[in-house]
Amino acid sequence: MTDTLEIIEHIPALRRRLDGAGPVAFVPTMGNLHDGHITLMRQARTHGRCVVASIFVNRLQFGPSEDFDRYPRTFEPDCNKLRACGIDVLFAPNESELYPAPQNYFIEPPELGNILEGAFRPGFFRGVATVVLKLFNIVQPQVAIFGRKDYQQLQVIRNMVSQLALPINIVSGETARADDGLALSSRNGYLSATERAEAPRLYRVLRELSSAIQAGATDISGLEQAATEKLLNNQWKVDYVAVRKQADLQFPTASESELVILAAAWQGKTRLIDNIEVSAG
Known about the structure:
By secondary structure, this protein is α/β, with parallel strands linked by helices. It has helices spanning 11-18, 35-45, 75-84, 95-98, 117-120, 124-139, 151-163, 193-198, 201-214, 220-232, and strands spanning 6-8, 24-29, 50-55, 89-91, 143-147, 169-173, 237-245, 258-267, 270-279.
């Protein structure tokens, strides 16, 4: 394929390039691209004449004890993958370009940003929402694509776009999985061989919980506890296994049928997240 990928590092140059280029479809990433990212890129092509990806490891969404410094940075292989799937523009700013001064203005998500992931990673969604809004203001896309693996993040961004009346259509992409069911993630590369062999258990446990709900089980708390114990009995550290309403991630009522099961758990030093949507039986 002809190398048509334009790599742009500076905001004014990107704005000049995109002036009149629309409709623009945008896929923001932190790099270390895998097949899940590439699926989103291909999906973006169906929504825009110009497809823009970004690579930026956003310090604002990492806690003080998290993996900002060791987060995998694979810029050249990432560029090759973007070329291979025909992306038009890669926005690749450095930190001083996106944050030329200390960021003192933040997007503070509502309660949705303080539960589940937000409870275990304080400030995470504030950092995500702030950088995404900044990228939206720079790129000014008509469509933006986000994967459903980060289910709560998708909800936070959708709500932000709605409440701030941004003229952007948020489109979700399916969770991409390895053959054994493990959700693809840049952090999977941290797993040892033994941990990688154990990692698909998370998805299996969620599928078992989903099957129970589809079969009519209604003891949500009991189901969550049973799933947690299955992981704990196999040397996982569990942050949460939670059954929530798809619409707002709040606790479901007895009449609620459209649910999502979300989980975060650790294999060794690697934190894995996953989710499954389910319709109650």
